[in-house]
Every structure is written in C-alpha cells, then in structure tokens.
Amino acid sequence: MDIRTYLQDGVLLFDGAMGTYYAALGHGGDCETACLTRPEIIYGIHRAYLEAGAAAVKTNTFGANRVALGETNCLSVLDAAYLLAKKAAREAFVFADIGPIGPEGDAAAEYRFVADRFLELGAEHFLFETLSGLNGVPETAARIKEANPKAYVIVSFAAQPDGFTQTGHLVRDLIEICAADPNIDAVGLNCVTSAPHMAALVETLGPLGKPLCVMPNAGYPTVLGRRTYYQGDPSFFGQQLWNLASKGAAMVGGCCGTTPEHIAAAAEALKTPLPKPVPVESRKKEKPAEETGNRFWEALCDPARKPVAVELDPPEAADVTKFMAGAKELRDSGAAIITIADCPIARARMDSSILACKIRRELRMEALPHMTCRDRNLNATKALLLGLCAEDVHNVLVVTGDPIPSASRDEVKSVYNFNSRMLARYIRGLNETALPTPFRVFGALNLNAVNFKVQMDLAHKKAENGVCGFLTQPVLTRQALENLKTARESLPPEVKLLGGIIPVVSHRNAVFMNSEVAGITVDEAIIRRYEGLDRAAGEDLAVEISGQVARDMAPWVDGFYLITPFGRTGLMARIMEQMRSDGLI
Q: Are 393 and 364 in contact (CB under 8 A)?
C-alpha cells in the first residue's frame, strides 16, 4: 500500500529506539556497525518491534555517514542495514534513517552521499531525524524527489521542552519552513523530550498542511553506575502516543529508551477510536517583548546623540571595590553604559553578568555584559539570560570566545555548543517567546582583520540572526578607519556601530598590543611617537590621539566604544572630556 493512502485511513505506528534498546540488551560497540558484525541481533530487534505492532521500521543507520565511519565502511553499513530492515519488514514500511551530521562534516554533502546510496538500494521512504537545524536538508530532499518523485520524505527535529533546538532555533520556525517546502512530505518532532512535553510542543504549532510525525523519548534518562537508563512506563507511554494522535499526529513512534513493550502498549492504546479532528486555528506567533526603559538603545537610535560605552575589565579576585569605584567615575564622566568582558583570553575573572547586575542596582546605570559560547551550554545560557532580565539588564554582547589555552585543556574544557550567531538567534527566539522585556544583542566586529571581507560576511550573518549593533575593535590605523567606513556603507542603517578606541599609554604598551593582542593593530607612526615619553606625557598623547580617532570616525558611527587600559578610569574621563569639548558627545 502507498503510504499516503495508509495515512488517509489511520495513524501510522513506527518502531521504537534501536540504539538504546541494543545497549539495554547488553551489547557494546557501535550499534550501526552491528549490521555487519551482528546482523542477527539487528534483524531480531526489527522483528520484535514489528511483532509488537509497528507498521514501519527505521533502518539502523542513524549514525551512518562518512564522517563517523569513513566512506567504505559507511557504504557497507548502509547496504547491510537496508537489506536487514527490508527482510524483517515484509509488508511493513521501511524508512531510510538519516541522523544529524556533526559540526566537523559538510552536512549537505554527507546527506547527499547517504541519500544517493539509499536511492540506489531502492529506498522510497526517508526520515531525517533528530535535527537541530536545516543545514543541507532542503537540498537533499529536492535531490531525492528529483530521483524519485514518489519518494516520501519526513524531516524531524529535536527540541527541548521550551521549544528550542540545541543550536538555538525555535523548532516551530523550522517546522513551518519545512511544511512550506514542496519536496518535504511530512514534518516531525523526535528525541530529547518526553511524550507530555512533546504534546505541549505540538500545541504551539499552527496548521501545517502536512502530516505530523511525533516520536518522543520514554521519559528522561537516569544514570546508574556507568550506564544510562530510561524508566518510562510502557503503558503510560502508549496512552501518551494516543494523546498525540488525538492532537493531530498522523505518525507516532518511539525514540530513546523505548522498547518493544512501549510500542506494544502504543499499538493497544491506538485501538481506541480517536476523536474527530478539530480544525486547528492559526496560531500567531507571540508578540515580541516590548522595549521598556533601555536608555542606551534609545540613545543609539537618537541621531542627535552618540553615546559612549566604556569597557572595564572585571576583577581577578573577589574584591570589587576598585571596579565599582571605576564604574562610578566613568558614569559621572559621561559614559552611557559599562561593558564587561566575559573571562577574556579564557582566564577566569569575576562573572560579567553578576557585575552587570551589581552596576544596574547600585549605580542605576546601564551595563553590557559580554557572553561567550565557550563556557556555557544552552541550559546555562538561558538560565543566565532569565536572571539578567529579572535584574533589568537588557543589553548583551555575544562572542564565540577565546579558546582555552592548550596547556590547560586537560583540566579545563571549552563548551562551544554554539557560536555567536547561534546565540544571537537563540536570544531573539527568547525575546519572542519567554521574556517580558527584550534583549538588545550586540556583536564584535574586527576592523583590523587581514581579510576584512570575511569579517563583513560574518557581520551580515550576525545581523540576520538578531545582532542589532556592533562594537568594533580599536581604530589605530588608516586601514581600520577605511574598514569602518566600509562597514557603515554595507550594513543596514538600523544596525548600529560603536567605533572602538583604545588609548595607547606608552611605547611598551603600543609594541605589546601590536604583537600580542589579537584584533589590535597599531600604526608604526603612532608607536614611534611614544618613544622616550614618561607616564604623564604618554597619557597626554593618548588623549590627543584618541580625540583625533574619535573625530575621524564620528561620521561613520552611532556611538563610541572606549576600552580602558590597566584600569585607568581617570584617563578615560579625560578622553570623554576631550570628545565633549569637540562636540562629539
């Protein structure tokens, strides 16, 4: 029977998990390669699910790609897995299962390679599952349809209960994009969440116009000893799949932790007639959070003003007295906002977000904490953002973050679940769904990059993902100033630019920055001007040069970004006074 005809008559029940069930049976090693080394076990698992009542099975190829297995081994696994599933399925549907490609692989190329092999084997049904984004999927779906117009393609995403994937996408948006793609026949959710939470996610979806496939986990995992277990009750799971079908799911099944018992319970539950479908009303996206009291953003948007952001390094110890005194001096000297780096150069300092909250509470001043992707996963990031919002801090600067120095990697691990573009997109999604007041998200722009075109390409991508403004690296060369002009002419006018200024305080400081500090380039003529100067003369020259830099960049920026060297807030006050006397601020 054609699957489209089948779905007109009832709900299609998929099998359950292959990988976790294979492990639960006591088998070690890679599950996919067991198609070659232990084919009787894989065949037996397929049969167990079918005998439990499943009408469709997935090939044991979730992790089968060249990145994981190499080309020759991958082809062997794909061939064996498909033949085993076909042999076991008999009259049931067989879906060629394609899992996500890791960040080290070219997703489009790998999906194409796997799909082509399945097409050669005669596959007609395809399931892209546990995805966190769309990279490479629409192109592969089009390729499948071109090769076999009758093929049936399901694209399924994995999302947390809050509706976000691990790369920061709102799963609702991804599903809507796929539902509008003529080469994709059905859309879905699978993995990560339990059935009740997945039901809540289903309720956030509007009318899709295409069948919905839902495969939740058997509850949530627990670790006993060195093994991970799922303890979800099969009977409860079965009733939950019936509930999902009653909400409009045309295909249901199980993901991690599910066993033949879970599928048997689902098959039994699905014997109960489903209620007549109720038309799903179009669900408008939640109204974006409203802007309230973000004085810094208001100043940036005022063409008559050029607000000043001043960066102040967080303390290395627990004593915050000097930092807060410096922040107060900067406020009183005219700074509109204090920016605070997040463990710069991957060395631990006082938390930037906690300091931002302290500044907001005690100085009644705007603060802009930097937030790196190096040290936090998605859960920790969301928790921190919710706390910042509660403390009335509504500006953040997102950066990927410097890597942990190599000598420390054995003890301190980087996280890097996402990059700055993904984090910006994630925050934009939170603005739409979870926050009473939105964050304004800023990014960094390196004007001193050797290949500035690459930087501009990244800047455009960041802007597309929700970055509303950029703080640039310092301008201390003519080329950096030209790059600033290019940035202003290239970026949309609603994207704000804050031109970076760092005062050079001595000849030694200039040489050090030029050779040791990434993202800073100092003109040789400036370096020579500092030769032989004492501290006082060096600071005087710093005020002069910084004032000239500010005048040069003023036509191209919406504000200024001053970077405080060595905690010298008094010097920054002098520079702001010079800028004020020049009529720049």
A: no
d(CA 15, CA 259): 8
Longest dimension (CA), the chain: 90
Residue 434 pLDDT grade (very low, low, confident, very high; cuts 50, 70, 90): confident
φ, ψ dihedrals at 227, nearest 5°: -120, 150
Is 530 found in the same domain as 471?
A: yes
Residue at token pair 């994709």? 184
Alpha-carbon gap, residue 54 to 4, rounded angstroms: 17
pLDDT tens for 365-403 read: 999 999 998 888 888 899 999 999 999 999 999 998 766
Token code pair at residue 125: 């049904």
393, 339 contact by CB (below 8 A):
no
Angle at 137 between CA 133 and CA 142, to 5 degrees: 155
Q: How many domains does the chain have?
A: 2
For residues 239 and 195, give the distance between their C-alpha atoms in angstroms, rounded to a whole number. Answer: 10
- Verify that 240 and 346 share a domain, yes or no: no
What are the distances in angstroms from CA 271 to CA 213, 267, 394, 440?
18, 7, 51, 51
Q: How far is CA 339 from CA 219, 312, 313, 323, 353, in A?
A: 42, 6, 8, 12, 10
Strand 12-13's sheet: what is its strand order? 12-13, 251-252, 212-217, 186-194, 152-157, 125-131, 93-98, 56-58
Cβ pair 562, 576 in contact under 8 A: yes
Q: How confident is the prediction for the chain on average, in pLDDT?
A: 92
Task: Answer yes or no: is 292 within a domain.
Answer: no
pTM score, two decimals? 0.81
Helices (DSSP H) in 505-558: which residue ranges? 507-516, 524-529, 535-553
Residue pointed to by tokens 């303890």: 231
Bridging pattern class, strands 221-224 and 227-230: antiparallel
Q: Which two tokens stand for residue 342?
A: 């997040």
Is residue 299 within 8 A of residue 335, CB to CB? The reply is no
In-domain check, residue 283: no
Q: CA–CA distance from 525 to each of 22, 359, 528, 531 (Å)?
A: 68, 38, 5, 11
Q: Minimum mean pLDDT among 198-202, 215-219, 495-499, 515-519: which range?
A: 515-519
Answer whether 162's CB lies under 8 Å from 197's CB. no
Query: Which residues are within 8 A (CB) of 212 and not within 5 positions of it... i.e. 6 or more apart?
Result: 186, 187, 188, 189, 202, 205, 248, 249, 250, 251
Task: List beta partners, residue 561.
Answer: 309, 500
- Place 206 in a pLDDT band, splitting at 50, 70 and 90: confident
| One domain, residues 47 and 94 | yes
The residues, ordered by sequence, that sit 6+ positions from 99 with a Cβ below 8 Å of its Cβ are 61, 62, 63, 64, 65, 129, 130
Measure the CA–CA gap between 348 and 521, rounded to whole angstroms: 25
Same domain, 303 and 256: no
338: β partners: 310, 367
- Shared-domain flag, residues 63 and 186: yes
